[in-house]
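Key idea: predict the complex, not the pieces.
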Amino acid sequence: MSSIHTVSPRSVVTRAPVLTSLGLALALGVGPATGQTQPAPSTPATAPAPAASKYLAAGFTQLPRAAKVLVMPVDVELFSLSAGGVAEPRADWTATALGHMNRALSGNVTRSGLDAVLMDEVAADEFAEQIGLHAAVARSIALHHGIGGTWALPSKEGRLDWSFDDAMRPLQSRTGARYAVFTWVRDSYASAERKAAMVAMAILGVGLAGGSQVGYASLVDLETGRVLWFNRLARASGDLREEKAASESLDALLFGFPGTR
Amino acid sequence: MNRRRWLAAGCAQCATLCAGGVLAQRPVPDPLPVAPWRSPQRFVRPDLASDEGGLWALMDREEMRLRRSPFAIRDAALRDYIQGIACKLAAEHCPDVRVHAVRTPFFNASMAPNGMMQVWSGLLLRVENEAQLAAVLGHEIGHYLQRHTLDRLRDAKARSAFATFMAAFGVVGLVGQLATLASAFSFTRDQEREADSIGLDLMRDAGYDPRECSKVWDNLRAEAAAAPGADEASRSPMFATHPPSDERSQTLARLAAGASGGFVGEAEFAARLEPFRFGLLEDEIKRGQYDETLVLLARMLKRAPEQPDLLYVRGEALRLRGKDGDLDAALADLRRAGAIDKAPAQLYRSLGYIHQRLGQAEEARSAFSRYLELMPDAPDAGLIRTYLPEGKS
Amino acid sequence: MTSRARASALLLVLALSGCAVVSKVETGETLVRDRLSVQVASPWNRFERGQADNTVTWTVEGLYVDALQFYVAIRDGELIAPTPSGRKDVQPLTFKASMRPADVVALYQSLLTRDGSSFTLDRIEATEFVASPGFRFEYSLVRKVDEVRLRGVAYGAVRNGELFLINYSAPRLAFFPKHVAQVEAIARSAKVKG
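Result:
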C-alpha cells in the first residue's frame, strides 16, 4: 500500500490504521537528528556477514553457487518533501528509481554467483496473496527484529526466526527458483522550498527533518518458507534518482546479504 | 462530437446557496459567466514529470493493486454491464474508461485522471434503476472530463492533505478517514455544479431519463439523516468528496424537469443485480448500522413490497437493533416473508431467536427445526441444534 | 482489527516514552487481567494494554501478523472497544448480558468490519468454555488496510453476566495453521478466578 506510506510524521499522525505506523516505526530508527547510518561497505555487499549475524537466520550462512534466485518486483516509491513537510509522491522519480534498482539488484545477485530470475508485475498478479503476506511479515520483522529494542519479541530470543512454511511453494513451482529476494523502499527528498525552510528554522534553533530513506530487503527460501536474511534500512542519505547513487543505496539495502559457497 | 451547453441556463436557477448546515448563509452570487461546454478531446498520457503525469502514474499503480485485490468483484457479466453503461455515457472517451466494481458496502463511485473508475457495491445496492446508476457514473465522468481531480490535488497539496486524497482514490479507500477527507479534499461547489450539469448532458445524450438524477442524492441524504449527530460528510464516503446540499438537489430536479421519456431501466437493472443482491444485503446488515439499513430497506420495500429477501433483511435489522417495538415489527416482516415463495431459509433462524427472546419455547423450537431442515449444513447448524431438545430435530 | 490498530498506536506512544512494551509469557499457568487463568505450553509475547483498550494482546510473529486477544469479565453495558472519537454515526459496541452467542458474534463482527474489512462466519458451535456453556466460532477476514486474508477462531462464554472471550487471528497462509493448535489448547485450559 505504497500510497499510504509516507515518512512525514505529521502525515502519519492524521491516519489511524496501524499499518501506516510502519512509516513512523521505521522512521523511529532514523532518530531525532540525523539517521543511524548503515555502514556503506566499500567491499561488495556479498562479503560474508559477521558470525551469529542479526541479519541471518540461525544455521544459515551461504547460498549454493548458481542457485536460482527470483527477484520480486521492487516496491519503491519516491517522494518530494514540500516546505510544510508533506510528502508528495513523484512518479517520475519513482519510475527512474525503479529502473536503477532493478538493474542494480539483478547485478548484485548475479555478481554473487547466483542466477537471477526477474518476476514482472503482470506475472506477480498471480501471487498477490503471497506478496501481500510477505509485506505484512516484513513489517513485523522490521519492527520487532530490525528495530528491536523495546519492540523486540522475547520469544524470538533476538533471532531472525520467521517462516512461511509451504506458502511460497507456488512461486517455486512457477519459476523454478529456490530462493526469492523482496525489496521495499520509501524515499523522500527535500524540495528546494523544504531546504530553504530547514535553513530558516535552523537559524531559529529548530531542527526540521530533511528527507529520509527507509526500506527493507529479505531473502526467502521458497521451499521451506524460511526468511534466511533480512535487512532494514533507515537513514537520512542516499539518492535513488541517479544510477551510481542508487547502486550505493542498493548496496546498503543488501548489507549482510549471504555469500555463495 | 462536440456538445454545447450553456452553464448559465443551469445556474440561473442556482438562486440560493444552501450550505449544508455548517457554513453561514452567503449572499446570492452573480450568475456564472456564460460559457459553452464542449467535451474535450481524448486525454493523452501527460509527461511523467508534470504533476498530472505523476498523478496518472500513481493511479496506474493503484489500478494494478485493484486488479489483485480480494475486494475486486470479478464477475465478468456484472463488470461488462457497468462498463457498457459507462461507455455509452463517455461517448468518444469510451476507450479510456475502465470500470472496476469493488465489494465494499458503502455508496461510492470515483474516477481517476487515468480513466480508472471505481464503483462500490453499496452503490449498486442503493440505486433503483439503470438510469440512476448512469446518473452517478455520468457525474464522475463529468469530473474526469473537466480534470477536477487535478485541481483538487493542487489545493490538497497546499493544505497538506495529499495522503488523504490518495485514500479517496486508492484501492484502500479508508472509510474511517472521512472527516479529514471532507475538510481537505472535497470537490468545490462549482465543480459539483459542473459535474452535475455535464452528467445530465451525458445522460440525456445516452438516452437516459435525467429526472432520475436528483433522486439518487435525495435517497442518499435521507439515509444519512437516519444516523443521529454528525454531519453527512463524515458519514458517507460519497458526501465526503461530493458535498451535498439542498441547492444541488433542487437544481438537478429543475434542470431535468423539462424532460419527458428517456430510459429508466428498472427491470433491466434488477435482473442484472439479482444474482448478487442477497450477498450485498448481507454485507449491509453486517455493518451493524441498523438505523441507516432500515431507512434503505423501507425505501426498497416501498417499491417492491413482496420481496422475501428484503423482508427477511429488514426483519433481521429490526431484531438486531432491538429497540421498543422492533421485535414485534420484525416478527411481522419475517412471517410475511415466510409466506412468499423462495424466501431465504435464514428467516426461520431469525424467528427462532425472536421467539427465544420472547420466552416462546415451542415456537422457537419449531422455527429452528425448520431452519435446520432447509439448511442442514449451515455454519451455525451445530449451535442451533443445541437449541432443540434431544431427539426432536 | 480496529482494536489492534489502537493498541499499536498506543504502544507507539508508550515506546516513545520509554515504557516496557513487550514482555514474555512464561510457559505454565498465567493470569490475564487478574481473572482469567490459562495454561501456556509454547512461547508467546504479551503487549501491555493501552489505557483505553479492553483487551490484552499476545502475539507470536508480531502485531502485523497474528494476535491473540483476551476480553476478560466484560460487564453488562460495557463497550468491547472504544468508539472512535469524533464519529457519532458509529453505533457503540455495547455488550449486554442477555446476548446469545450469535449476538456476541454479531457484535464482534461489527468491530472487525469498522475499517471496511470483510468478515465471513465460517462456523459456530456450542462448546464448554471457562467451565460454562459457551461457544466457539471460526471466521475469515480480509483485512482492509493491506488486503491480507486472515482466518480466526474465538471462544466465548457469558458467565454470571460477564463476557469472557479469547480471539485469535492470523494469515490463512502458513501462520494460522501453524499456531491454531496452541490457541485451542490455551482456550480449553481457560478458567475464571473469582
